[in-house]
């Protein structure tokens, strides 16, 4: 087993990494299961690209999520959200702290709890589709994929409707994980917003998840108070970012594969399997948040040294031919399951049941209401968001035809 060699000098990932990640990952998998890179935001990390190694290491306790440990390994002055008060949430924690924090909110995102949200999600989808002008071209991201999950998660946590646009803009900037003054300013505004929101919940609690977190904090003697803001940040962002990209990427995949779209229209009961194939084929997450190695860790024939930052490329693992037959083919009849679209291990996405339900409702309602929907732009003109963790479109122009 070899550590980094001359042939494994870090490669610098640029625009192609964001705009055509699948092509980049195909080349990287040929080099081995993992290799050091410089991300577009100048972070030096090891990227694990193979399915087998990603799945195994996602559940390996030798990779820590401790944000303080990770921040020390990032370039000075370029530690993104890891250097802010927003970093102390359960996705950036190890057991036993992670276990405690996840238990506080787990019951709100079980399949049974999420199913109770179905009528409201369907109502929001219908209202947004009612506003779509027939025969016109709209940006499906801005008009549908974004507002649907933002409305749902905001209502679940108790975020006032008047604040949702600001919150959306700040969060889109923060999760890009790109360096710069815009990210710092968005983080500062997000902190102020969440601080005021929590203070309001303390003064006037209501029937929402954030009020419940405040109540639990009181019962634990205030233990949760320092974490409530970062927990709210995680739940709000995770509650819509994944679904935005799932809806938009899913619609694009169907429009680019008319045979699969026709099959789904003729057999709408395949919709849950179609959502799983979207998660595998072009999932909403580019790569995981950072981990750090506490000791040397093997990945294929390579050994990642101790004290290194690591990301798991979910887009790459889910197109690994060693795990999936004909991996670059979008096929909604593929046997579902096994993909890493929501991660794996103790940090498996808490909001997966909500994202799946919203994706099914949103795409199903769209195809029923506008069966003639068509892409109204050349595929090569579509651009992806600049982000080292999210895989999403900046815009998706479609013609809304009945």
Task: Describe this entry's structure for a reader.
With 402 residues, the chain is of the alpha+beta class. It starts with 10 loop residues before the first strand and ends with a strand. Helix 7 (118-130) runs antiparallel to helix 9 (147-157). The radius of gyration is 21 Å and the shape is globular. It has helices at 15-19, 21-30, 51-58, 67-73, 97-106, 111-115, 118-130, 140-145, 147-157, 164-174, 181-203, 209-219, 225-256, 258-266, 271-282, 314-317, 352-369; strands spanning 11-12, 34-38, 44-48, 63-64, 137-139, 291-293, 297-299, 302-304, 309-312, 374-375, 397-399. The strands form three sheets. Strands 1-2-3-9-6-4 form a six-stranded mixed beta sheet, with helices on both faces. Strands 5-11-10 form a three-stranded antiparallel beta sheet. A two-stranded antiparallel sheet has the order 7-8. Helix content is 49%, strand content 9%. It contains 17 helices and eleven strands. The model is unreliable at 3-7 (pLDDT under 50). The longest helix is centred in the middle third of the chain and has 32 residues, at 225-256. It has a single domain (6-399), classed as Cytochrome P450 (Cytochrome p450, Orthogonal Bundle).
